[in-house]
Design brief:
There is one protein chain. The protein is an alpha/beta fold. The protein has four domains: 32-320, no CATH class; 332-444 and 461-581 and 711-728 and 746-757 and 774-795, no CATH class; 805-979, P-loop containing nucleotide triphosphate hydrolases (Rossmann fold), CATH 3.40.50; 1013-1158, no CATH class. It contains 34 helices and 47 strands. Strands 1, 2, 3, 4, 6, 7, 11, 14 and 15 form a nine-stranded mixed sheet that branches. Helix 1 packs across helix 20 and helix 10 (388-414) crosses helix 13 (476-490). The radius of gyration is 33 Å and the shape is globular. Pfam families: Helicase_C. One of its GO terms (biological process) is nucleotide-excision repair.
Length: 1159
Amino acid sequence: MTITMRNACLNRERIINAVRMEIVGPSAINENAVPLKVIGNIELEKEAAYKKYYWINCGVKEEVLQYELPARRYSAGMLYPLNTPVAEIVMDDVIIESIDREQEGVNRLKQKNYSAEEASEEKAYMNNERLPSSLGLTCHISNETQNLKVIFNAGHYKSQSINIQGRGKRKWWLRESMVAEVNVDMKELKKSYVSSIKLIPKNFKGEHIHKLDLELNLQYREIKGNQLVTVTVTNRTKSLKKEGSQADELMTFQSEITLEIEGIGEFKSYPKYYQRNLPMTEDEANDELLYRNKINYAFGHGCSTSWDQRTDIVKEVKTSFIPTYETTSMTPDVEIFEKGEWKKINIRMVDLANVKTFKEVKQLLLPLIIGYADWIQKQYDELPLIDKSLRNVAKRNLLLCKDSLERMKRGLEHLENEKVRQAFILANQAILLQQVNGKKTRIPRVQDFEITYDILIGETVLTLDKLQNSSNSWRAFQIAFFLMSLDSIVNDDSIEREVVDLIWFPTGGGKTEAYLAVASFGMFYRRLLNPRDVGVDVIMRYTLRLLTADQFQRSARLICAMEYLRNETVFNLGEEPFSIGMWVGSSTSPNQHKVALEKLRGMKQGGKDSTFIVSKCPWCGSTLGKVKGAGKQSVVLGFKNKKNELVTYCPDKECHFHKEIPVYFVDESIYEKCPTFLIGTVDKFVQLAWNPKARTLFGIDEYGNQRVTPPNLIIQDELHLISGPLGTLAGLFETVIEELCTKIVNGKRIKPKIISATATIKEFETQARCLFGRTQARLFPSPGLEIDDSFFAKVAVDAENRLMPGREYVGIFTSNVGLMMSEVQVFSSILQEANRLPQDEKDPYWTLLAFYNSLRELGAGINLCTMDIPTYMRAIQSREGYPENRFIREPLELTSRMQSDEIAATIDHLKVELKNENKKNVLDVCLASNIIEVGVDIDRLSVMAIVGQPKTTAQYIQVSGRVGRRWAERPGVIFTLYSNRNSRDKSHFEHFNEYHQRLYAQVETTSVTPFSEESLSRGLSAVIIAFLRQRFGKKISREPDSMEYMNIFKTMEFQNFLRCLVERVTLIDEEQVPVFKKNFEDFHTLMCGNYFTIWKVEDEGQGMMFVSGDPIAQKNSPKSIGVINSLRSVDATSLGKISLDVTNRKEEEKVELDWGDIF
């Protein structure tokens, strides 16, 4: 399905306008409307009353409200009479008797309390709050400005009696446009500082609307030689409670203030931090540098603001109740100046996959390096133009760019080495094969014991000989990162091995391929050096199940490509297959063969489970799991019982992986097979304290010997999610993971390389230090001098140098209804308008993805979508005279409370595109929680609603990044629904443009404190136990024998680990060193006490540890300690502290440690 960008942009604007007309008004006068004659008495036949009307006001078509009071019809943009209580309007019993049943339903909805909690909030709100009677804005005006024109536009509704045959008199409302203008002499305002002026609103006839008493207020301040002006309009009309519905005539609707500067002068940027000489951190100074050209001209009071974003000289600013801001789309395309013209760099994967000599590689990659060097020099040439207060941070940024350049050069030099070049060629081949194979799902059908497919394997599996004309190319930043990482992978002595490299690129930019390329290279290189050095080489970790499962599918395609090449290449890559393992909790995948085989039997016997975590062959795309057989029978394909173990295979006999797919997702298989590439959740690594079999993942045998090289590379995607309590305990546990991954070469300790990735991060050096204990971290691409150009990413423009469309954010802040009613109105408008788009252009905006900050709110949203929203949609259709109403099916949810296969099924459902014949199969609404922050990459989605400002800006960016990913064809739109009960939401709304201009700069700093007292008391015992049980021999892995422990304690290996722990505490928080020593001494005393015969508390034997938070185990085993089994939640009453029965023993029984000897 191809949709032109122009039409998609027009359709997006239609969706936005539909919401604007529903919330603020006035509604459109469409082709269905007919004129209403308002001269004399108005009488209508019963049938005529159902039509949509407008009236002519001085030659202008104006709105007629037929079924609702204006204050009920609209939810924002009104100015109520001063001091109008919320209850006076919201709980008004006056309802226009409707001749339309759907409209009566809407009237009831707008009086409805949606939940006990919202009802209590509503009550407090109504008792203590007044409805808005004013709006305004503050702006910065150049000092030479002499005159400021203030224009107040609004709609005023006057009642009109209509006599309907057989129904009697009804009251309709006629909209009347009005305007008031005031010219402000800035010299006079400067003298008085404040000014109040009575506004004279007039209609098109020039008549004064006497019922309204409006006041214009101005306040003047001077900052840095420019003028700061606050302009507000207040409705001071006196409200008469007895007037009932006549109160609507005392209000203004669609209220808007416009400020214009005619002649000399202009609006100026609101003063920035560096311009006000305010103290700044280095991170803040960097943001000021990068965003210095993002200009904020105004912010609102009780509203938001807008101005023309396309001009450098702003002469007009406005208030807005539905603000919009379109972010710029960033392109990874890079152009270099070569032979007198600009050329786009296009580095095809197949070209790098076919090179034979270093000269060929250099010829392909050197232009990128030269282009980057030229760009850096141009940035240096611009340094004198940078404000002096920002010049130091600008120089620092460029030094980091030069550092990246030098690393790229070193990487290129490494390719002179034959084995390095071979691994590089193989990695390019593997990534190319991964990109083209296994993506299309092939549906099998079983009949008469034969399997046939809807797509032949030859149409989906492409080998290298068929890809010689492939257009698949590296994005410049991907191949640049690949190059600059080579030294840290191949050179054990490289100083870059200690550096945490952080790939920082906008959501959907291709970060995954960048680090998968490095991972693939490392795995190939290790085999080329020693074909028998087989074991886990790469550990990739995530925090969310959804992300882990999604990346497993993608990474499995890479591993299958690598295994295919191992069999086909002339290079010696050993006899053991490349393989991948998914190491996660039992809620996602079975941890034992016994459980896995029981699930397989259940699937075969008609159970509800349809598949395992691997739902299709990563190589050819064949569906795995339960598939339809002949008649109503189902068969299970792709999984089999082989010697009491679950084995995954491709059911297609022609597939390269028909015998077995090298993927493992049962813990027992993972410990036995030691997959080359291990993917797991951060949580799972706590099992190192509980299961000594996990030692095989680090190349350690049962006797504690290093059988093969430990993992060389650790990848931590979505680094921003490793924060708070999770990050704190993860940082503590990272000490033992790093130690188990550290190899000894010629007596030198070589730590694993760490790569991380995120689209949102703040103070990443601090986070890298606290999480990984590394003193250096590097962001790539380094940002340079401004956010819109880092060489590797720049603002996308068309052939005429015009900005390409980006995601458009729309703010919704209602005045007289709660957040849930806002949902009803906004969702209904979006869904109904999407139905009115041209049939072949509906798909981008057909499926509404809604994000909620809590499961409670999401549950309420499900109820709205099944009951209230359909009612409201029918009312819109009836009111506007649309030929058909859209029927929405039951919404699906995407939350953490779902099973993994349910999540996968929902994601597959979201991918189904709308076509003429399949409307019933396409999802209408999907309601999601924070599980969609990462890992949901469905590029057909282009419309989203975010209900309530998310807790963090990082979450806001990640969530909104789920739509509009195919921006060149179907740009996205995000509606943010703010709560009028929440002051934080109101502030975000009033500063809407400013906030979205500097969205990435608003990201909050993440907090990680791995050696806090709480963290040490919770997690240190687990860390020490994990090291003991994984690193040393059989005896200590099976039981906490005191004599064995004391022997191990004296070893150089244990002493080195203890020394590393103290050094890390010193690096991160030196004041916590005594706390750490105290916690370790308590553990040491416990281990030396000869109290325990087994590790885990069980029915037999004296167990040392039980799962923290288990009150029964704690009561029955008072001398045992609680040890964490999860990094996410630990019972506050059982935090893994050493038992008081032990720590409170007599002083002489404690084992004293001489820390001086250790160091």
